[in-house]
Each structure stands twice: as C-alpha cells, then as structure tokens.
Amino acid sequence: MKTRLFPLAAALLLAGTAPLLAQPSHRAAASAAARPQFGDFGVDLSARDLSVKPGDDFWAYANRAYMRAHPIPADRNSYGVDTVLAEQIEQQLRDIVEHPRADAASRQVADFYASWMDEAGIEARGTAPLRPYLDRIAAVHDKAGLIALFATPGFASPINIGIQPDPADPTHYAPTANQSGLGMPGRDYYLREGADYDRYRAAYRTYLITLQRLAGMSDAEARADRVIALEHRMAEAWWAPERQRDVTQVINPMNRAQLAAFTPNFDWGTFLTAAGLGDQQKVVVGETTAIQAEAAMVDQVPLDTWKDYLTLHFLDNFAPFLPRAFDQASFEFRSHTLRGTEAQKARWKRGLDVVNNALGEAVGRLYVEQHFPAESRRQMTELVANLRAALGERLRANQWMDEATRTAALAKLDAFDPRLGSPVRFIDYSPIRVDRNDVLGNAFRAGEFAWNLQVSRMARPVDRSLWDMNPQEINAYYNPLMNQITFPAAILQPPYFDPNADPAVNYGAIGAVIGHEIGHGFDDEGRHFDAHGQLRDWWSAEAAQRFTERTRALGAQYNAFEPLPGLHVNGELTMGENIGDLGGIEMAYAAYHRYVAQHGEPPVIDGLTGDQRFFLAYAQAWRDYWREGLLRQVVLTNPHPPSMYRVNGVVRNVDAWYRAFNVQPGDRLYLPPEQRVHIW
Questions:
Q1: Checking CA distances to 578, which of 168, 215, 241, 446 falls within 20 to 30 Å?
Q2: Per-residue pLDDT tens digits for 445-482
Q3: Rg (Cα) of the chain, in Å, rounded?
C-alpha cells in the first residue's frame, strides 16, 4: 500500500485492556484460578526502582528494576512490556504458517512462507531473479519511460503516489502526491553535522557499493556517489517532519491544468496513467515546494543517474529476498548501524513479518479464528463506550470552549466509529501468484496486488469497513478522514487485555490508550476534520486561540527534554501524540472514577491506593527502552516521543498524580499548578 498524504495517528506501542462495568467490585486479589498475568492485581511491583522518587522520574520509578533485569536481546533494537505478547503471537503465527489447513488461503500463506524459508534455493538461484526487474530499468531510454517507472509498484520514486479518502469529500477516494525518494530514514541523516551523521553517511555509501558489487555491477563507487548526491538534493528540498503534520499546508487539491502549471516539466498524465489512475482529474498534493523541486530534478539530473538511483533502491528494498550476502548487508546498515541491533532475528520470525506484510489479512483471519474470543469483543465495546462517556462529560464541563464549538465537538464524539478485533470482511489474496521457488517475485507481486486493489476501489464510494492494520498487529490507530478508532485483536489478550486485573490497572493501561486514540480526533491535526471526516473549520476563532495557547505551552515542555546529548524532543513534531497522551490519561482517570462512583471506593492493595495503581499501570504500559540508534531515529523522524516522555511528560500535568504520590516543589517533574496544561 502506498504512503498516505499524512500518517494515521497510530500509537507506537500500546498497552492492554480489560472489562470495565462488567467487572466485579474491587477485590484485593484474584482467585488462584483467575489470577492476572502480572503480580497479584495486574501491576509488576518488582519492576519498580524504589530508590527513585516518583516525582523525580516516574517512568524510572515504575520500570527501572525491570530494565536492569531484562537487557535488550541481541536481535532487537528495543525491549519492553509489549515484547512478551509479541513473542507469544510469533509462536501462534508460526503454528499457522507451518501447519496450514487444507483451504486455498492457508496453502497460499504457507507457500509464501516456505519460499522465504528456502535459503538453499535462494542461494542456488543467486542474482538471476533480479534480472527481469533490472532489465526494466535498463530499458528506460527517455524521460517518459522514467516517469512511468516511478509510478510502477515496486520501484522507487521522488514523488510518491497514493490513494486515500478525499479530505473535501471523504465518501470518495482521491489520488495523493507526496515527497519521497530518500534512502536513509529522513532529511536529517543527510543534512545534520556531527560525527554520528558522518558515520551514517559513510556507512550508507559503503552499503550501496556493496549491493552493486554483489549484483555484479561495475563502477560501484561512482554510481553510489552520484545517487547519494541526488538524494542530498532531495533532502535539501524536503519539508521537515513537523511541517508535514500541518494539514493546512499538506492538503492542496489540484486539477490537471493546475498540476501542469505547478510542475511544468513533469508529465502528470504519464505518471498517473502508469499508476492506473489515468482517468483521475484531481490530485491532492502534499509538500508543494519539495515536490516542485524533485519534479525539476527529473529534467536536471542525467537519465543514467536516475537509472542508477532506481537500480540501487531496488537492490536495497529487495535485499532481504536475495542471497544471504545481500540480506546481511541490509541488516548491517539498516538494523545494526542505524538502529544499533546487534544480531539478526531468527529467519522464521522475519518470515512471519514478510508474510504479514504481503498477505496480512489472510494470516489475520486465521489468527482471529483461533485466538480472539467473542467475549473480548463484547468487553472492549463496553470499555470504549465508557471512555466516550467520560470525554463527553469533560467536553460539557470545558471552560475554554464556547457553546458552538462545544456542540460541534460533542457531535464529532457521537459520530466516532470504533472497530474492534478484525475487519468484517477480509481481503481475498487469491489473485496473487505465489511460487515456492520465487520469493523475490512473490514479494513484488504482492506489492503490485496491494496497489491494484486500491486502484480498483477508486470508482466506488469509500468502504468504511477497510482496515489499515492487520488483526495480529499489536497497535491501534485513529483515522481522521473516517473518524474511526481501530483496535486489532492482538492487543486484546494478556498482558494487554487481562479480565482478571484490578479495575484501576485496566483503566490506567488500556483505558488511557483508548482515550489517546479518541483524543486524536481533537488534537492539532484531528481538530481540523469534522464529525464526518471532512476538512472543515468548525471552531470559533476564540476557541481555536485558546486551544493553541495550551498546545504551545505543552510543546515547550517537550522541547526541554533531551534524550541524547544535544538532541532534544521536537515538541512541534510530537504535538499530536502528546495531546493524545495527555487527553487519554485524563479521560481514563475520569472514566475510572465513574466506575468508582458505581462500585465504591477501592481498597488499598499492597500499600497502594486505587489512584496509585492507576498511574503505575499507565507508566508500566509504556515500559519500552531502546538502543541509541533507534532512539535517535525516533527523535528525528517520528511523531511519537520516546516512551519515558510519554510518561514523565504527561503525569506532571495531571493534578491527581501529584496527590497520589505526594509530589512536591523541588521534585524534578514538579510543575506549579498554573504551568500545568489541561486541554481535554
């Protein structure tokens, strides 16, 4: 699937859930037959570092002992509370792909996986599977052929073409165009100064040279240098990640005449026709000046350099599907150098990733049938309803919104569409030809199928039942163009979904995550879309100004965080996630006290009050720690802040946290009441 105009507001790492109103009253401990997975009530008390004051570093207080006892494994670039479930799901999926049922879909999944696991066959075939694809690049003799190949699934392009609901009319689809084309994770890897970035650039050059030599190409150094110089020009033109988040700048609909005037030397007719979109008369353009600059480079850069660019990107993108030397070179640069991963994951685990990417809903259908009980869906529905009610109460009590804006916000909340567990209909992948002796071809054909499937939907109204995540994915997301929140089945089981945990724990963990996703409908991006997902300003000028004042104050707090020397969190880039986290925990806390009002005051358990258990569960839900390379990449390119700030940056703004842990002036996280930010 091609990249969207702007990314879905999806949480980077998620916590789990449990039933709310359906639970029995508070209890000090579960029976032996129904114990929670963590501890006596759902929180791992042994994970705490009691030498740390909660008011100094709440994330470390809740998690540091666990971190010391569980170093990051050599084959991972991060470790945390989500890893336990991820490893469990890997075993469940392995059983599915290695022991297929008799039906055609199961056999297709098993054959794709088997093609990946056939290491001996991959080695024996060598680089021969590359030839048809590299020959297509070699056959390009003019600019029209180049532009057509840019639009072909499986090949790189400086301009990415995508498909999504039209922001002006979300009931119909529209093509989108965005900046694209870099080989390293983002513009900063080309433009920033310093020894770390010099090392990344040198390693990238070595990697491109290695790929060429493995493919039997000549003049490898000169080709690599020309491609890197081209990508450096692209990086100079690219918009910064925080600017890409501004929906008032990245949604620019243009008809064919406007496109022609916008980039006179770039043939949009050829580009769209090659993408299967030749009858489309409008494109929603994203980063305007970057796209103009990259389009101009199609004329300014020699054709042979562009062909080298396409070749090297193809080798890079498909290196894992080639003989081991290619695969290892890709690991050394992309995982070891850039992210700090020490060892390659087991091949069978990577095979699961490959199959999930190619045939995700076929695998997901099998996974849901075996591992997602109907009761989980029922309990989750109840939980979401309770969170929505809590936000409704907070919106009605909001002091800075005027009545007209409040009414529109409540209408948007009422129109929220929660989807739980799995799609109502799964994608049929039967048109993909899967050959057990052609893993590269399988991967390429799966990409073609995914794109052609999107194109086939263009003539019909938007299908609101489609999903952007697989059911077996441990994550969740909000889609502003659909006003939908989606929670896949994978998070609805222990340790994330635990029906035997204390209610305070479940509200503090998954309750805050659900609140986070709901809150994305009202963050600095989501607030620009109305109840139906249409791009429309439904705010009064006064309410918008008050909202902006609060978000700026929140951004300033995050700008002060420095996860690595000289590298600060970007409060503007992470604004939407920070608003979601803050609103999510306050929403969940309000929902928890709705529960308390119905069931009575909770007891003290193991010396902890209900509120303390709530906040500890929240902090442990974000127990995730990263290698330096991944941490750097996230800070530079990702709209989510590092996990420790998703705790410390949030709780310091929540009044109830101060009361729960007796946080006082002089504690490092302490903020005076007038400096605490409250939005939703």
A1: 168
A2: 999 999 999 999 999 999 999 999 999 999 999 999 99
A3: 25
> Do the strands 484-488 and 417-421 form a parallel or antiparallel pair, or are they unpaired?
parallel
The number of residues in the chain equals: 680
The contacts of residue 124 (CB under 8 Å, 6+ apart) are none
Peptide linkage before 495 cis (omega within 30 of 0): yes
Check whether 14 has a pLDDT greater than 60. no
Mean pLDDT of the chain: 93
In order, the DSSP letters of 268-322 are HHHHHHHTT-TT--EEEE-SHHHHHHHHHHHHHS-HHHHHHHHHHHHHHHHGGGS
Name which residue leads in pLDDT, 17 or 39: 39
Q: How many whole angstroms from its chain centre is CA 499?
A: 27
Q: Give yes or no for residue 497 having a pLDDT over 80.
A: no
* CA pair distance 390, 586, nearest whole angstrom: 9
Q: Where are the domains of the chain?
A: 12-20+35-83+380-426+463-675, 136-316
361 neighbors 432 (Cβ within 8 angstroms): no
Between the CA of residue 469 and those of 1, 438, 460, 479, 604, what are the distances in Å?
Answer: 11, 26, 21, 11, 39
Give SS3 for 254.
strand
Alpha carbons 385 and 367: distance in angstroms, whole number: 26
Mean pLDDT of 436-440: 98
> Looking at residues 42-51, what average pLDDT do you find?
95
- The average pLDDT across 399-420 equals 96
Residue 428 predicted with pLDDT over 60: yes
Asked if residue 29 lies in contact with residue 40, where contact means CB atoms within 8 angstroms, the answer is yes
Residue type, 621: A
Alpha helices (H) along 194-287: 195-214, 220-237, 241-244, 247-250, 256-262, 268-274
Considering the domain 12-20+35-83+380-426+463-675 in this protein, what is its CATH number?
A: 3.40.390.10
CATH number attached to the domain at 136-316: 1.10.1380.10
